[in-house]
Design brief:
Length: 556
């Protein structure tokens, strides 16, 4: 049963009073401090020389770029070029309470940590623009990749080294949090609805229901990929913020060999141009993300020759697959307004099946008299009542629908490229959404979350939905459910592709046909790893960094 908001407003204040004290006793503090030691590496790009030379240049100080740079700095000089600022310049990224604020903040086009864009599917999205990348604006959930990710990746992984790389990340920035009241109930509802077995707490990807790690500590403080820079060698590591790479530089073409990347051109916040070059045996590594890396390859002349010619971009290497095979895991969800204030919490629990993952997040409702763009929420009306929401979220794990990326500007890298993901184009994807949302309906029928129903003035109980609820015939009518999935689709922010292994880069993440240039980020992924990709992106940075160090050692 659905209940209207107005029918329950008279009893909300009573419920607030009676449940608030009960919730407060659930919080437990731990001593885990954010480590800002990495700031000794960080420099505003305006203060850097017009030309410098390093062993390695990492384009993008994000989720993969930070651990990669820290690892390479153990033996060699490294320059990280990050277009955003340091986290302490945008405090919302440092706490769980700032998660929704980051998504809702107006994009100033320069310094806000969540850069907004809208795909050509009409779905609003964001990309990270801050040191630490999207690990500084996400929901913090940490869970390792599924076996299928490794088997389909095109990479010959050394699994012992993969394990060590995960552990290297986890020992520094991954925490176990106490379940909130809602998440405890949500976990029990998953099990009651048949998403079993109960796998307790685990960082591994296991079918069933589990709690997993978080990059938020017990006090709600974020510990993103940026803190992995603290593991770097201080004398070898330099991080430039507000440094926007314009293009990659290449050697003149030799008749007997491929061209080599020799450096980059980047601009600082005042528009001044800088050159950074790599030494002999050094490399340029793109870690600019699933939008930024293919965009920079295209702007630098690596891509389909006819397309680049049409944009008057000088061709360096014909590579037809740059920007192709773009995919985004669709997000469909329902929002429940809880009948009492609930402790805000990031994702803590996940239900894992072969066809969908189910997660949940809890927060306080922002009320505004006008809809705000790019928000996490449906449109709201103004109110003076403080309410909380719980969102139940469905994510298909391996979207078969694919799209592509094209440049919106052939000269301005700050203009987000055009991207289309073609959500639900493949019938398998829409069928998975239908089954996942039906399971959501089953969760709403469990005894475990019955306490989150409202009782209206006539004594009838039901959930109070914010935005769309499931169709009344959701159990039997496929067409109604397919329409629900299409009309409510949004993003999980887990988009990937554009520089796939075997298409653009080889199994060692080298750009095919070009020397001294790699791509190390989610643009190389055929499918998104695990329930949430940040664990594997950070592992990837560490893993590839170690492989590169080993290659240099063996080449001596």
């Amino acid at each position: 049963m659905e209940i209207s908001t107005m029918a329950v407003l008279p009893v909300l204040l009573l419920l607030s009073f009676s449940f608030h004290h009960q919730l407060q006793v659930l919080a437990q503090a731990t001593q885990s401090y954010q480590d800002f030691s990495y700031m000794k590496f960080v420099h505003n790009a305006t203060n850097l020389p017009q030309e410098e030379e390093y062993d390695y240049i990492v384009i993008g100080g994000g989720t993969a770029g930070c651990p990669l740079a820290a690892t390479l700095s153990e033996k060699y000089s490294v320059l990280v070029l990050e277009r955003g600022g340091a986290p302490n310049s945008t405090p919302n990224v440092l706490s769980g309470s700032g998660f929704f604020a980051n998504l809702m903040e107006a994009d100033d086009g320069k310094t806000t940590p969540a850069q907004k864009f809208t795909s050509e599917d009409g779905v609003e999205n964001v990309r990270g623009r801050v040191l630490g990348g999207t690990s500084m604006i996400n929901a913090g959930f940490y869970s390792r990749a599924q076996e299928k990710f490794f088997s389909k990746s095109g990479v010959k992984w050394e699994r012992e080294e993969v394990e060590k790389a995960y552990e290297w990340v986890e020992e520094s920035i991954v925490f176990r949090s106490n379940l909130t009241l809602w998440n405890s109930a949500f976990k029990e509802a998953l099990l009651e609805a048949g998403v079993g077995p109960d796998n307790g707490f685990s960082l591994d990807h296991i079918l069933g229901t589990k709690e997993s790690g978080s990059t938020y500590d017990s006090l709600g403080r974020r510990h993103g990929a940026v803190e992995l820079l603290n593991k770097g060698e201080a004398e070898n590591l330099k991080v430039a913020v507000y440094a926007t790479v314009q293009r990659i530089l290449f050697s003149s073409k030799a008749s007997t060999s491929n061209r080599s990347a020799i450096g980059v051109i980047y601009t600082d916040s005042k528009g001044k141009s800088h050159r950074a070059l790599v030494r002999n045996k050094g490399e340029v590594i793109l870690s600019a993300g699933a939008l930024g890396s293919p965009q920079l390859l295209l702007l630098s002349g690596i891509g389909p020759s006819s397309y680049l010619s049409s944009l008057k971009i000088p061709l360096i290497q014909h590579q037809k697959n740059v920007g192709q095979f773009m995919a985004d895991n669709p997000r469909n969800n329902i929002f429940l307004v809880t009948p009492f204030p609930s402790d805000p919490s990031p994702v803590q629990v996940v239900g894992i099946t072969t066809e969908y993952f189910i997660e949940s997040i809890v927060g306080d409702l922002p009320f505004s008299s006008t809809p705000e763009p790019f928000t996490f929420f449906p449109s709201l009306s103004s109110s003076s009542i403080n309410l909380s929401f719980a969102s139940i979220i469905v994510k298909p794990p391996e979207p078969l629908s694919r799209g592509d990326l094209r440049l919106a500007s052939s000269s301005n890298v700050k203009t987000s490229p055009r991207v289309r993901f073609n959500y639900f184009q493949d019938p398998v994807d829409i069928a998975r959404c239908v089954r996942g949302m039906r399971k959501t309906g089953e969760l709403l029928e469990t005894k475990s979350i019955d306490r989150f129903k409202y009782t209206d003035l006539q004594g009838q109980k039901g959930f109070l939905f914010l935005g769309s609820s499931l169709p009344s015939n959701y159990k039997t009518d496929d067409s109604s459910m397919e329409e629900f999935c299409r009309s409510t689709v949004t993003t999980f922010w887990h988009y990937h592709g554009g520089c796939l292994v075997g298409k653009v880069v080889d199994g060692d993440f080298r750009v095919m046909g070009i020397n001294k240039l790699r791509v190390v980020d989610g643009s190389t992924f055929t499918l998104s790893p695990g329930t949430n990709p940040q664990a594997t992106l950070m592992m990837l940075g560490r893993y590839v960094g170690l492989k590169m160090l080993q290659e240099r050692k063996e080449s001596k």
